[in-house]
Amino acid sequence: MFVIIGYVVALGCIFGAYIIHGGNMGVIIHAMPTEIMAIGGGAIGAFVVNNQPKVLKAVLSALPQVFKGSKYTKARYMELMALLYDILQKVRKEGLMSIEKDVEDPHNSALFKKYPQVGSDHHVVEFITDYLRMMVSGNLNAHEIESLMDSEIETHHHEGHAPVAAIARLAGALPAFGIVAAVLGVVNTMGSVGQPPQVLGGMIGSALVGTFLGILLAYGVVEPIGGLLEQKLDEATKEFQCVKTTLLASMQGYAPQIAVEFGRKVLYSTERPTFSELEQHVKGKK
After folding, report:
1. Measured between alpha carbons, how far is residue 90 from residues 86, 95, 99, 119, 161 in Å?
2. Pair 182, 206: CB distance under 8 Å
3. What's 114's DSSP letter?
4. Within 10 Å of residue 282's Cβ, how many Cβ atoms?
5. Centroid of chain to Cα 11
6. pLDDT tens digits, 202-254
7. Is this prediction's pTM over 0.85?
8. How many domains does the chain have?
């Protein structure tokens, strides 16, 4: 919703100011189809050449997320930390081997089913169970597991950043394609120097529309999408960091309630539940 509102405000103010100053929208509308064909077609073709198929697929998968709200809410984080608390509490009371079945088959685990918002997220469940499995095996110490976690989180971030970087490169290329379209328009105009001034003026105006559209599409449409996707990627990474901090605190001997508090402190302040909110949530889930 906010994305659509933002686009409406941006485009409305830009074209509104143009009309208020006496601009003729007919010139822009008349030139727009061919200019968009030149700019958009050229940019999309170069975009395909510039990115591997896996990056193109990632971009197509990421674009629908732009129009959806963030799933990383305070309620989700409270579920995540309540799940981690229950797991660590079970380990503390019954030993590491007591969670072996939960780790091997999380989809049928009562612990994970208790928290459907987090338990249905394949990536988070896999991250949690992979490192719980290593803790159960007992062959790795906290420093070794921390190093593995950091490597996986870094890989996840780089992988998620690929479509963001691709969109940023596209935004950077659009003004150049706008100039290409404008130059073609000027070339066309120079080939018609014998025409009346009114005709030449219209042709020059149409040529300048190409530069205008290239810059508008770059900084008013495409680049904001890349920025929003990057923010969503940072939120996803933060969730993994919360899990990492909580599990490592547990491995270092802290009680489940304190380990979860370590993880809570990692979260952004806008979504971080207070100590009391988390405590009440955990008690309500027992």
Report:
1. 6, 7, 7, 17, 36
2. no
3. T
4. 20
5. 23
6. 677 777 888 889 999 999 999 999 999 999 999 989 999 999 999 999 988 89
7. no
8. 1
- Give 150-201 pLDDT, tens digit per residue: 999 999 999 999 999 999 999 999 999 999 888 888 777 777 766 776 666 6
- What residue numbers bound the domain in which 260 lies? 29-286
Cα gap 283→286, rounded to integer Å: 5
State which H helix or E strand residue 203 sits in: helix 197-216
Q: For residue 261, tell me if it sits in a domain.
A: yes
**Domain contains 92:** yes
Residue 213 CB partners (closer than 8 Å, separation 6+): 32, 35, 36, 39, 178, 181
Is 9 part of any domain? no
Token pair for 278:
């988390």
131 within domain boundaries: yes
